[in-house]
Design goal:
The complex is a heterodimer.
Chain A lengths: L1 H26 L5 H4 L2 E2 L5 E2 L6 E2 L1 H4 L5 E7 L4 H13 L5 E8 L3 H11 L5 E5 L3 H6 L6 E6 L3 E7 L4 H11 L1
Parallel strand pairs in A: 4-5, 5-6
Antiparallel strand pairs in A: 1-8, 2-3, 4-7, 7-8
Chain B lengths: L1 H30 L5 H26 L6 H6 L6 H6 L5 H22 L5 H25 L23 H29 L5 H32 L10 H26 L3 H24 L12 H25 L13 H33 L7 H21 L15 H21 L4 H23 L5 H23 L1 E7 L4 E4 L2 E12 L3 E12 L4 E4 L2 E6 L2 E6 L1 E4 L3 E9 L6 E9 L1 H25 L1
Antiparallel strand pairs in B: 1-10, 2-3, 3-4, 4-5, 4-6, 6-7, 8-9, 9-10
The chains are: A alpha/beta, B alpha+beta.
Chain lengths: 173, 625
């Protein structure tokens, strides 16, 4: 008798696991890039890299018509390559460049910025990668162009190049 | 094209053989004293068919036959032959075919190696294994056929991801799979033994070789993966607690527990139900790993994006197997555990060891699947990183290590009086002192680290002592335990003493780091078969003017166009010097990352020692017969 209840309980537990996994499978599509375009940005807040203070969502996205959110890390090789282009992009005053520092040591990240210059008007940190997952990021570097209604209008997977930069200019104009 | 066709049809024929074997074995189950010879032939033919099928895929790969979709997606004409072949299992479809091959290979080996076992038990094992095999045949054919035909035939393939073009990674999947799939025999065998009421000391003796074999392959397979991550990914680490790594660790932990538990069954006939549960769990975890990796359900930015329909198939199959084994276990398992177990005995220490391993296992399991559960139930997304594992595992590892040092010195059944030996205490104090001194020399005062180092030193010293003092002892067990203490020690010392510097240098410049100077002398360019390489010549000079050369490389692969950086590592007994360089675009500067990592080689050596311990034990078993 005791055995039977135990068996039923275990079976119930596994059924529960099954349902969760089954639902999880359905969820897993959210990482496909296209769906992230023309979508409202999810609200998030994070710590500033330099000051360590919590910055709320409204203060990250403030005072600009266009925002460019760039996910980067000091250990990421292509990020280093695209950095020059970001520096160029930062000269465009109609854009606010936001850096999202992905799974990085803050010491290394700061050094990276010291070395190569800081194109961003604010750098927020994503120590455990949650924000990037929420954004639906594939990997890094990845860049999002966001309009003033906080809608993602374009998403660039991988490092920027001159051609993409021109596209960005066209969008922002 | 022909090879691909032959491969496809032999795969279908292979499935058909399963449908033949199953009814014949069922009929044979009750009517005869000996196994029907047809079963042997059919199993052998099925194995041959799967071999032909995988051979067909390999030939398609070596001939760069792009009418085959798998080849098109994962190969390229300029790829070296070696990577064309390893590309066969470097992708989803091919790796499943490999999985299938090992499944059929193992059941055939089982049939010819188990002649002394009862007939009913052998046939039941075959039946359970055939259920798994049928499932995988269907899975390959329905959701991930490696022989899909492409028309018009593309001229060129898409190429294999360059980071997978590496010798360690070429042999990593087959070896890991031998370990993973080896657990299927343990699963089928234990279910058959439960049905047959044959869980006994003889059974334990017989199944132990299978456990050992899968355990050895799994250990080496995990090590190869870790070595690859260390020098190819260029992050300078060897274990990242990434979900994909955790998935290979979980069956290993379970198998390790089973390996210890089967000893108790073999020697004392105790822990029967527990052994069966562990056998079932181990294989379930391997399957669960396949599901998690192959379905793309994991909440990690680094998983292979995949088709959810595959996930659903494995998920359903996985739960059918779980439910089947649970029902069988509850219906047939009538073994009452009545043996008295004394507190100070080997049995108890092994049981304690099992509890600890189960704890480690649940930490890893929860860390891996919790994000999935949370996302489904609350829509919240999280990712679990190394601090979680470090915090939950380290404190218990200390106690685990101490038990590991004392346990093997206890006797079976009963150690009469608790003679707390002075020697054991003195040794413990010595290890405490050593670790205290080590940490003091770096200026770290972390209590947990001190205790962890002393605990592993303790195990280290005790196993060494036993090598010399005791006359009759268990070589294999001592060697593995010694390897384990060495592993923990080297991981700890490695993490405490590692140092690194990242800087930008141009040719001719140098940089002083601690008491060494890094000179960047020159660069060379070379053109290879499927990539171009830029090699940097670096010279590291210490203050005594001893210098070493390091030549990190940047590779620009042609297909797909990818830039990878190959670290150069100078390995020596006490430390590895690791140098990797990256390009800074539009600049004559190179970004240089230099790391000194102590005791790296000891990490690999100690894992090898652990595995060698297993091999010795397998060898010893053979000689006993």
């Amino acid at each position: 008798m005791k055995n039977k209840t135990l068996l039923i309980l275990i079976l119930l537990f596994f059924t529960f696991c099954f349902i969760v996994f089954f639902k999880g499978l359905k969820n897993s599509n959210i990482y496909i890039p296209e769906t992230a375009q023309n979508k409202d940005l999810e609200v998030f807040s994070s710590k500033d890299l330099f000051t360590g203070t919590q910055v709320p969502f409204d203060q990250i996205f403030i005072n600009s018509d266009f925002y460019i959110l760039n996910i980067w890390a000091s250990w990421c090789l292509p990020c280093r390559n695209e950095h020059d282009l970001l520096m160029q992009l930062s000269k465009n005053k109609s854009i606010k460049l936001i850096g999202l520092n992905y799974k990085d040591k803050s010491k290394n990240a700061k050094k990276f910025i010291e070395e190569l210059g800081n194109p961003y008007s604010i750098i927020i940190t994503d120590k455990d990668g949650i924000i990037s997952i929420r954004l639906g990021a594939y990997g890094i570097p990845e860049t999002y162009i966001i309009d003033k209604n906080k809608k993602i209008i374009k998403r660039i997977i991988g490092p920027l190049n001159k051609k993409l930069l021109k596209e960005v200019d066209l969008i922002v104009r | 094209m022909l090879a691909s066709q032959i491969g496809y049809y032999s795969l279908i024929l292979g499935l058909f053989f399963s449908f033949l074997i199953i009814p014949i074995s069922v009929r044979n189950l009750n009517d005869n004293k000996i196994i029907d010879i047809k079963i042997f032939y059919l199993s052998f033919l099925q194995l041959v068919l799967v071999f032909i099928s995988i051979g067909g895929l390999i030939i398609s790969f070596t001939n760069s036959d792009f009418s085959n979709e798998t080849v098109y997606n994962n190969s390229h004409t300029t790829k070296p032959l070696f990577y064309k072949i390893s590309g066969t299992w470097g992708n989803h479809e091919g790796s499943l075919l490999l999985w299938l091959m090992i499944l059929t290979l193992f059941i055939f080996l089982f049939l010819i190696k188990s002649k002394n076992q009862p007939k009913k038990y052998r046939i039941l094992t075959l039946l359970f294994q055939q259920i798994i095999i049928t499932g995988f045949f269907l899975f390959v054919l329905i959701t991930s056929n490696p022989f899909n035909y492409l028309f018009p035939i593309p001229k060129e393939g898409l190429g294999l991801n360059p980071i997978l073009q590496d010798p360690a990674l070429a042999i990593h999947p087959p070896i890991l799979y031998l370990g993973y799939v080896g657990t299927s025999i343990i699963f089928s065998g234990s279910l058959a033994a439960v049905v047959n009421n044959y869980i006994s000391r003889e059974w334990a003796k017989h199944i132990k070789s299978w456990i050992l074999a899968s355990w050895i392959f799994l250990t080496i397979g995990i090590m190869l993966g870790s070595i690859w991550a260390y020098y190819e990914l260029g992050w300078g680490g060897f274990w990242f607690w990434d979900p994909v790594e955790n998935i290979s660790l979980m069956p290993w932990l379970c198998l390790t527990a089973l390996l210890h538990c089967i000893l108790v069954l073999e020697k004392k006939g105790a822990l029967i139900s527990w052994t069966v549960i562990l056998s079932i769990t181990t294989f379930t975890l391997s399957m669960c790993g396949t599901f998690l990796v192959r379905s793309g359900i994991l909440n990690s930015v680094h998983t292979f994006a995949n088709d959810p329909s595959r996930g659903i198939f494995i998920l359903i199959f996985l739960f059918i197997l779980i439910i089947m084994s649970l029902v069988i276990f509850f219906i047939f398992n009538k073994n009452e555990e009545s043996k008295k177990i004394y507190f100070f005995s080997k049995e108890i220490s092994i049981l304690i060891n099992n509890w600890f391993i189960m704890y480690f296992l649940s930490v890893v399991l929860i860390g891996t699947v919790y994000p999935i559960f949370l996302e489904v139930l609350t829509n919240e997304k999280i990712s679990i990183g190394p601090p979680f594992y470090n915090k939950l595992i380290t404190p218990f590892l200390i106690i685990f290590l101490i038990f590991m040092s004392i346990g093997p010195n206890l006797h079976w059944v009963k150690s009469k009086a608790i003679k707390i030996k002075l020697q054991l205490i003195i040794l413990f104090i010595i290890s405490l002192l050593i670790s205290f001194l080590i940490l003091k020399s770096v200026g770290s005062k972390n209590l947990v680290n001190t205790l962890l180092i002393s605990a592993s030193f303790y195990l280290f010293i005790i196993t060494i002592k036993d090598f010399f003092v005791k006359k009759s002892f268990n070589y294999s067990q001592k060697l593995s335990h010694f390897g384990f203490s060495l592993l923990i020690l080297s991981i700890l010392l490695n993490s405490i003493f590692s140092s690194e510097i990242i800087t930008n240098l141009k040719i001719g410049e140098n940089f002083t780091f601690k008491n060494e100077v890094i000179h960047f002398d020159s660069i060379e360019k070379e053109k290879k078969e499927n990539y171009e390489s830029i090699i940097g010549n670096f010279r590291i000079e210490d203050f005594k003017k001893n210098s070493i050369q390091l030549k990190p490389e940047l590779r620009i692969y042609n297909q797909p166009v990818t830039l990878t950086s190959e670290a150069d590592i100078k390995i020596s007994i006490f430390y590895d010097k690791f140098l990797v360089m990256n390009l800074v675009k539009g600049n004559e500067y190179f970004n240089v990352r230099y790391q000194v990592k102590p005791f790296m080689i000891w990490i690999w050596l100690s894992v090898l020692l652990i595995a060698i311990g297993g091999i010795l034990s397998l060898y010893k078993k053979k000689n006993e017969k």
